[in-house]
Amino acid sequence: MSVSSSTQALEYLQGLPLQTHRKLYEAPATVLAVFRCMLPHLAKTLVMAMLYMPTAFPDAHLKTWFKPGANRQKEQAVFVLAQLHILDTAKQDDGTRSHSLSPGFKRSLRHALEGSGKDGSFGVSATEEEARGERRVSVRYLDEYARAQWESILFYMVGGAAGVDVKSDIGVGTKKLLQAGALVQIWQSQPRITKEGFTFVLQETNAQVWNLLIVYLKMAGDLGMNETDVLSFLFMLGSLELGQAYSVSTLSPTQLQMLDDLSAMGIVYRSSKDARVFYPTRLATTLTSESGGLNTTGGTSNNANASNKGFIIIETNYRLYAYTDSLIQIAIISLFCKLQHRFPNLISGKLTKESVQQAVKQGITSEQIIAYLTTYAHPQMQKNKTFIPPTVMDQIRLWEYEGERVETENGYLMREFNSQAEYNDVKKYADACGVLRWSSDEKRMFFLSHVEQVSAYLKSKKGPR
Amino acid sequence: MVKAIRGTLVRCDASIKAMLIDIDSKNNNEYIIEDLDEEHILVKETKVTELKGRLHNMMRERLKEPESSDSE
To answer: Which residues form a coiled coil (chain B) (predicted)?
Structure first.
C-alpha cells in the first residue's frame, strides 16, 4: 500500500470517536488490519513491545528506548496511537505518566496472532451446500470483473474532460457517491470532473479504492447504516482470500446492503443479487496489504498479477510516448499532454506549456503530474536515476509556477502568547510534531498545518496547574 | 490567552504580495486577515480561490507573455 492511501485511511480513522474505536477493536480482523497497514512503523514497534506486558509501562522507561535526539519521532508515534485510542496514558499518583495498550485492542490483536477467540471476524467460507448451484469463479474472471467495474467508474469521471464521449453505465448509487465526494459535478446533466476528481484519477488504484470507500463511510450514516459495521466489514474484506467463496449468512443487514454497493464498484462479486455466497476481488483483498493491487493500466494485459507496469517514455525534448491502448490512460494523459498521434498500441504527444498550464488551471498540480509520470515510467526509463529527465521535471514545475505564483496551505495562526517562554515552548512542541509551517519570533506567532495535537498539548499544560 | 485563527497561509514573492495587498485594499480588505512578513500573508480560507482569480486577471493585464515557441 502506498503512503498516500494508508495515510488517507489513517486520517479518517483518527477522526473517529472513542466509542467507535472501542467497538471496532472487538474484531480481530480489524485490529490486525489497523496494525498491519495503518500504523507507522515506529508505532508498530511500540505496540509489539507492549502487547504482552502485564502492567502499565512508565513513560520514563519508554524514553530510555529512544535515542536522545529522537524525541520528535517518539511523540509522533505516541500521538498516533493515542488518537486511535490504542494507547491509554494514565497519570500515576506521583505525577509520572505511564502507558498501556487499551484492553480491547490488546485482546483482539492477541487473538489475531494466536488464532484464538471466536470465529467469524475473518469471514466465513461458504459451505458446500451454499456453494451448490453457484458457478465456480476463477481468479482471472474476478480480476476482469473488478477491472471492468472500476474502469467504468474512472471513465465516467474523465470521459467528459478528455473530450471522449462516453456512455458509461455505472450505478445510480456510485454516481451519487462520486458527487457526494465532490469528485464530479453534474453540470448541464453531464458529469464534470472536479479538482478533487483529478487528484483521484491520478492516484494508484489502491488509493482510489480507499478514497472512494472513505466517502462511502461518511455517507453511511445518511443511508441508515451503522458506521462501525461498515468499517469492520471493509477490514474483514481485506483479510479474505482471492478466489474463495464466502458465505453471506453471518453478515449483518447493514453489511448485506453494502454488498450490493460494493459489487457495483467491483470490490466484491456476486453472481446475482440474492446469491448466498460472494467473492472478494483483488480490489478488496489488497485493501489492507502491501502487495500489488489490481492493474488498470493495460487494457489487454493478460497478467493482472504483474505489478503496475510502466508504459510511458519521456524524452528530454518533452516528447511523450505511451504504450497503451487503454482509453482511460489516454484520457488521463490527454489532461496534461498535447497528443499528436495514436497507433494501435502507442500514443505520442508533447508536454507543452499550454497543456501543462491548462491542467494546472483545472486543479492538477505539477507534483501530481510528475508523480503520475514516475509511477508509470517505462522500465527502460526506470534505469535512470530519476525516472523522468530532470529538465522535464523542472520545466513542469516552472510552468506551474508561472501560472500559479502563490503557494497556499490551510491551517491555523497561533498568536497572543502570554510570555516568550510559553511561545518558545509551544513552538518547539509544534516543530517536534512536524506541523510548524511559519513562525515569527518578534511578532510571537506561528502557523500550524494541524492544530489538534498542539491544542491538546496546550490543554494538558494548563490542566494540572 | 493563546488564540488560534483559522486561515490559509499564502507564500509568495514580495512582488506578488504587493499585488495581493493592492487587490485587498481595493476590495474593502475582505481577503487578508493578517500581513505576516515579506513573503507570507494569512488569507480567509473561503476567499483564497477568488483572490487567486483576481491575481490572475491582474497579472494578465500587467504582464506581457513572451511568444511561446512551439516547434514540433
So the answer is: none
Euclidean distance between CA atoms A222 and A228, whole angstroms: 14
Give the total number of structural domains in chain B.
Answer: 1
For helices A452-462 and A420-433, the axis angle rounded to 10 degrees is 140
ipTM over 0.90: no
Local structure of A343: helix, strand or coil = strand
Is residue B25 in some structural domain? yes
Residue B2 lies in a domain: no
Contact B33/A at CB under 8 A: yes
Tens digits of pLDDT across chain A (465 residues): 345 566 777 888 888 888 888 888 888 888 888 888 788 888 999 999 888 888 888 888 888 888 888 888 888 888 888 888 898 888 777 777 888 888 889 988 888 888 776 656 677 777 766 666 666 778 888 888 888 888 888 888 877 655 555 555 677 788 888 888 888 877 767 777 777 787 788 777 888 888 888 888 888 878 778 888 888 888 888 888 888 888 888 888 888 888 888 888 888 888 877 778 888 888 888 887 655 555 554 333 333 333 456 889 999 999 999 998 877 888 888 888 999 999 988 999 999 988 888 888 777 788 888 888 888 888 888 888 888 899 999 999 888 887 767 788 888 888 888 888 888 888 888 888 778 888 888 888 888 888 877 887 887 776 554
Q: Which domain holds residue B13?
A: 8-65
With cell 482470500, the residue in question is A241
B12 to chain A, any CB pair closer than 8 A? The answer is yes
Residue B63: DSSP 8-state: P
Q: Is B8 on the interface with A (CB under 8 A)?
A: yes
Q: Are the Cβ atoms of B9 and A451 closer than 8 angstroms?
A: no
Q: What is the CATH number for B27?
A: 3.30.70.1220
Largest CA distance in chain A: 77
Candidate from B7, B52, B68 with C-beta closest to A353: B68
Residue B1 lies inside a defined structural domain of this protein: no
Contacts of A282 (CB under 8 A, 6+ apart): A142, A143, A146, A242, A293, A294, A304
Q: Please give the full DSSP string across A77-142, using - where no structure is assigned.
A: HHHHHHHTT-EEEEE-TTS-EEEEE-HHHHHHHHHHHHT-S-S-TT--BPPHHHHTTPPP--HHHH
- Nearest C-alpha of chain A: how many angstroms from B22? 15
pTM (predicted TM-score): 0.69
Q: Which domains are delineated in chain A?
A: 5-114 (1.10.10), 139-287 (no CATH), 312-404 (no CATH), 412-462 (3.30.70.2610)
What is the distance between the alpha carbons of residues A5 and A142, in angstroms, rounded to a whole number? 23
CB contact under 8 A, B7 and A411: yes
Q: Is residue B27 part of a domain?
A: yes
- A298-302, long-range: CB within 8 Å, 24+ apart, which pairs? A298/A324, A298/A325, A298/A326, A299/A324, A299/A325, A299/A326, A299/A327, A300/A325
Task: Give the separation between CA A72 and CA A67, rounded to whole angstroms.
Answer: 10
> Is residue A241 within 8 Å of A29, Cβ to Cβ?
no
